[in-house]
Amino acid sequence: MAHQRGPGGARQSRPGRNRDRRGRRRPGGDAGRPGTGQGLWRARLAGTIHAGPLLDGDRVYVATEATPDARIYALRLRDGGTLWSTKTESIVAPLALDGDTLYAATESGTVLRLKTDGGKVTWRRRLAGGGARAAPIPVGDGIVVATTADTLYLLERASGQVRTRLHTPGTMIAAPALDGARLYAATTAGRLLAIDFPALTVAWDLPAGDAVLGAPAVAHDTVYALARNGTLWLVPKDRPSEARSFALGITATAGPTPVASGVLVASVSGEVLLVDRRAGTILWRIELDGPIEQPPLVRDRQLVIVAGRGDIQAYR
After folding, report:
1. What pairing do the DSSP bridges indicate for beta strands 39-44 and 311-315?
2. 102-132, pLDDT tens digit by residue?
3. What are phi and psi of 242, to 5 degrees?
4. What is the CA angle 141-183-296, rounded to 5?
5. Which of 51, 86, 57, 93 is nearest to 69 (CA)?
6. Is the pLDDT of residue 27 over 80?
7. What residues pair up with 123 in beta bridges, in sequence order?
8. CB-side exposure of 265: number of CA atoms within 13 Å?
9. Any idea what the Cα angle at residue 309 is, between residues 178 and 267, rounded to 5°?
10. Going by C-beta distance under 8 Å and a sequence separation of 6 or more, which residues neighbour residue 139?
């Protein structure tokens, strides 16, 4: 159910509608701008979803925590039906996709490689010193994995063998964003980092003012990050000294999603906002059943949101 604030701040139910701050209905959307907010389906899985969904063509991949049953699922995007599921250790990190291969990292520090056709596990690698909260990142012929021991690993793609590692200023609990030969990462100590690979050396380090718990995103020449205190950061990739920030007045643990018409952000209370990237103004806002702890996803005119209690919701 979608809600908006009515006159005097009252919360009004308006299924299937997205509206701007003055209550006006937005026009229908395109691939980079969600349309009417119409509900399509809801799937209940055997476990709590902490990691966000991964969209791939006509399917959605999602993983669950250990209670009551830790599994990786492949669901049909059309109707939410289960294509396959594979039992694993508890997973709170998002999954990563590379062609016909999925990568997963568990709370206990095991990295897995699975085939998308049926979910068969082809290798496992246990990392020392901590589990994973961030998605693995395929880079070149390797896989980058961040652990809760403030360490970034580069693994061999074929076998999972450790090639190199980097100690980081704080824990990365969301996946770095990949752009060319550079990763853009954020930490719980409130640092935004540009990291060159395969050497895993730091190119620049920018303070964000508060912990950054969601994944950064890169679009064109800009890095986008959302701090816990609701500050949206826009950092030119090659000119970090020209970074801009906007205070949105929300509390956020999910990263931002740049789209054609602005930047989508979500709050722990269930708000989804579209923010103008030039002025930082809020173009429209809807309220869903929170908390929202993963970034909104947009694919083929659908806005897909994970509410954090086992529900995946799709809106048009």
Report:
1. antiparallel
2. 999 999 899 999 999 999 999 999 998 788 8
3. -100, 20
4. 105
5. 86
6. no
7. 113
8. 34
9. 55
10. 154, 178, 183, 197, 198
